[in-house]
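Subject: complex prediction, re-run

Hi both,

The earlier run crashed halfway through, so I resubmitted it with identical inputs.
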Amino acid sequence: MTSSTRRGPYICGIDAGMDVVSGKWKSLILWELDNYGTRRFGELKRGLVGVSEKMLIQHLREMEEDGLVHREVYREVPPRVEYSLTEHGRSLNDALRPLGAWGTKRIKRLTTEKASAST
Amino acid sequence: MTSSTRRGPYICGIDAGMDVVSGKWKSLILWELDNYGTRRFGELKRGLVGVSEKMLIQHLREMEEDGLVHREVYREVPPRVEYSLTEHGRSLNDALRPLGAWGTKRIKRLTTEKASAST
DNA sequence: CCCAATGCTTACCAGAAAGTAAGTATTGAA
DNA sequence: TTCAATACTTACTTTCTGGTAAGCATTGGG
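This time it finished cleanly. Structure:
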């Protein structure tokens, strides 16, 4: 059994939204796939600096199960597997954009505070 | 020392945004405070069914430290403490709205699938 | 015959997050 | 003198998450 996460019952929309994005690398995978359109496993691995193969595949599988990611296997040797976002994945990425913008502002704020604190 | 969470360095805005919201009850606290404007500790506890006092206060403290929540103490007996959102907290809540809407759609989708699966 | 290349899979472990339950402080009222 | 009411604290335990490192399968090339 791979799926361990909950997928409901949810008490509200944010709860449900947060559930599919919670996982250390998920939002980054989302961003990477949205940005490049299609990425091979190895490309994702190299793109997400620090991710382990175990977590990468685990997150990809969960996101596939959640209908966010499409997995295309090419029967070649060595094997080739390409990942891309589904329509749901793309819309989720859109929904995360305001949070990303908020976070960017927060980073700026923190930087400013740190700068003025060390004066 | 209460603060254990990371607060950076962040690799992007979503990363920073997710950081302040990650915590089982944080988005719900945000929603509750935004909805009521001001809530006492006990009111929050009763509003968030299932939360323990330990987690509630821990989350509130972290959110206060992150500048999302304002804590007002009234020196009465028995004590009264009121929590409310700061400007940053309110803007974060706004930023989370699209994710909440996405989640609501997802819940509907899941419900529909489940319904048609059991036919 | 062995290795490279790729995409996994598995077992094991450490640290973090969250749950449980009991205790603290204050003071007015019974 | 004891209790109720409120907002926490604290110690301990359990559960979850993610990291490490090694192994597996396929097949063309040296």
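The mean pLDDT of chain A is 93.

- K.
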